[in-house]
Every structure is written in C-alpha cells, then in structure tokens.
Amino acid sequence: MSDPSDLVHHLADFSRALRDHGVGINMSDEADGLSALTLIDLGDRAEVRRALRTALKIRPRDLAVFEELFDRLWTARTGSARLLAQKRSVPVAGRSRPQSGAPRPGRDAALESVMPEGEEPGYSPEAVLRRKPFDELSPADLLAMERLLARLALRLATRRSRRRVPSVRGEIDLRRSFRRAIAHGGEYLSLARRTRAVEEPRLVVLCDTSGSMDPHARFLLGFMLALRRVAKSERSSEIFAFNTTLVRLTPFLRTLAPERLSRVLERLAAEVPDWAGGTRIGECLAEFVDHHLDQRVDARTVVIILSDGLDRGDIAPLADAMRAIHSRARRVLWLNPLAGDQRYEPTARAMAAALPYVDQLLPAHNLESLERLLPLLAA
Q1: pLDDT tens-place string over residues 176-214
Q2: Dist CA 332 CA 318 (whole Å)
Q3: For residue 232, which of 15, 55, 28 has the smallest C-alpha distance?
Q4: Structural domains in the chain plus CATH codes
Q5: pTM, entire model
Q6: Which end of the chain is more exposed for a tag (fewer CB within 10 A), N or C?
Q7: What phi, psi does 120 have (nearest 5°)?
C-alpha cells in the first residue's frame, strides 16, 4: 500500500465497517487514524493494530468487534474493494446486520462503481478515473469524483508538519516533563507528551471561470469546497473566481447549506457573472492586488492561480499584478490544464508574461495532477 490514496481508501472502508457493526467512529477519529498511520511502520501489523485502536478511540465494550474486523479486513496488501466485499459477507460475534449481496444505495454503490471486487488498486477503475481528464468526465463519473475530491481534501487537512505541539498522546516531551517535575518538588507525577502539529495551509485561490476553463474550474473549486468542509478553520482559505471581472466567493460559500457538490457548483456558476464567458486575466489580477492583496496574502500564504493563460488583452497589468503577488506570497503556483500535454510550452503572451513571477507551473487536467499539489501546499 505505497500509494497514500490507497491508505486513505483502506482506512475509510475499515472505519465504515466498524460503524456498520455499531462502533462509534466519526470523521475526526478517521483523521486521527490517518495521522497515526503516517507515523508508524505500516509493515508491522501489531503496530498498525495498536495505532488504530488508540487513534480511533475504541472503547472497551467495542474491543472484541474491533479485533475481529481488524483480523479479517486489515492487511497491508488487501485492496479496498476486496475489503468492502469481505465486510458485507463477514458476520461479527455479538452484532447482527443484513447480509444482502446487493450494495447499499448511496456510498457503497458509488464505491463499487469505481472499485469492483478483485481489482488491484494500481489498475482499478478508480485509478483510471484519477487519470481521466476533467473535460472527458461523463455524468456517471461525477459522483465518484466528488468522493475522491473529498478524500484528497482530507489528506491535505490532516497533513502533519515537523513542528511539535503539546498533546495528550504522543511521544514523551522530556523538557516539559522535567519542568513539570521541578514544579512538584522533583517528583515525576506525570509525563508531558507532544505530537506533530496538523498543518493548516493558508491558501488563496484565483480560479479562471472563462469558457475554455469551465470543467477544470469546477473541479478545482470542488476540491477547495471539500477542503473547507474538513479543515479545522475555514478562515485559512480564500477563493476568488475571475473571467471578465473578479468575484470573491468566500462570503457566499459561508451561506451555503451542506448539499451535493454538484448542486453547490451550479449555484456558484449562477452567482458569478459571465461564467463560461470571456476572460481578462490581467485586469482581474490587478483588481485583486488593488483590493485584496494586503489583507488576504502574507508570507505564509500559498497563492494558486488556475488558468490556461489565454488572454488577448494588454499583458502589462498582468505582469505588474503577478510581480506584486509574488513579492508578498510564500509561494505562487500556476495550474494550467494545457500543461498536461507534454508538448505544451508556455508561449501564449499572457502565460509568458506571468511566468517570471510563478514559482511552479503545474498541470491541472485530472485528479492525479491535483494530488501532486499536496506537498507544495504545506504552510
């Protein structure tokens, strides 16, 4: 299970198996479980067992169920779909549940649509979907893609930094333990512990919603919406859309009730003037600099610009705006769907003008390309 996405997939299925057998596991517990697994040797089955039992906060009354499901379902080499198939057919002592061979409507059905039993993760339909260009996705692909975007967001929201912070669990903090002992006359009444902090990247996303960018913009915005749902603080991200004008989407997103991602994106498209219309990249980025740069961007902020860089307007405002953004941000990443083609060269006038102020020009044509962003978004 060398691919981190397979680990996330495997943990999600294992947690759902626990819930299906009456064990209380929530999203926060899953995030803790994923964080714990990044700190241990995944090849040591006993270590994985201990880490999951602790991180998922398994209560004594649920221990027997946990142990039996772990023994039957959790292996380093078992594919997630095979785990799910076993989960539906395995009875657990002390619990009763329907043993129908038909998938449950909703989440299980969606999972089976992309991970049929017997497929290895590297060659599964899910892997194919991750590599499929956004502009080639069919309506049948969208539900599965929404779930993959949510997992990608969870991976980013639970990344661990090198910085250590006080914690109830984790490694022993010798300095704090010593200071605590001094305060109690030299007695080590308890040991202080620490753990790696969860990174909370500060992101500003500027998303081109012109006609040529429509399918790509929807999926990047979908990823950002999923990230806001799982992040500890929504204040860590700002989202703007631009085409012929700049629109700050963040206030609008706060008013949206939780619902299907596709519906939210349709409502966003209705709110943004000239969605899927023309584009004035330079003027829109200049407006961002004039009205938002000082307040929204600092030395900890990663600025992400999603655009194909196709703009026939004056490039002088674009170069000036990019220079200002680059001088203030921690990092500037430009995501260009055209860069997914190995023959692509950034020779378009607008792209060429922006390039000196871009730390990295990256493809953004499929989910796999978005996954490569994660190491670059660390705060």
Answers
A1: 666 666 666 665 556 777 765 556 668 899 999 998 898
A2: 14
A3: 28
A4: 4-92+103-131 (no CATH), 161-198 (no CATH), 202-377 (3.40.50.410)
A5: 0.58
A6: C
A7: -80, 145
Distance from C-alpha of 361 to C-alpha of 333, rounded to nearest angstrom: 6
Q: What HEC string does the chain produce? A: CCCHHHHHHHHHHHHHHHHHCCCCCCHHHHHHHHHHHCCCCCCCHHHHHHHHHHHCCCCHHHHHHHHHHHHHHCCCCCCHHHHHHHHHHCCCCCCCCCCCCCCCCCHHHHHHHHCCCCCCHHHCHHHHHHHCCHHHCCHHHHHHHHHHHHHHHHHHHCCEEEEEEEECCCEECHHHHHHHHHHCCCCCCCCCEEEEEECCCEEEEEEECCHHHHHHHHHHHHHHHHHHHHCCCHHHEEEEEECCCEEECHHHHHCCCCCCHHHHHHHHHHHCCCCCCCCCHHHHHHHHHHHCHHHHCCCCEEEEEECCCCCCCCCHHHHHHHHHHHHHCCEEEEEEHHHHCCCCCCCCHHHHHHHHHCCEEEECCCHHHHHCCHHHHCC
Interatomic CA distance for residues 115 and 124, integer angstroms = 6
Give the Cα separation of 307 and 101 in Å (integer). Answer: 46
Which of 11-15, 127-131, 167-171, 243-247 is predicted most confidently? 243-247
Q: Please, which residues bridge with residue 262 across strands?
A: none
Residue whose tokens read 């962003």: 373
How high is the pLDDT of residue 336? 93
Give me the count of residues in the chain: 379
CA–CA distance, 130 with 132 (Å, rounded to integer): 6
Residue type, 33: G
| Nearest C-alpha neighbor of 71 from the set 3, 118, 4, 14 | 14
Which DSSP symbol is given to 199?
P
pLDDT of residue 160: 56
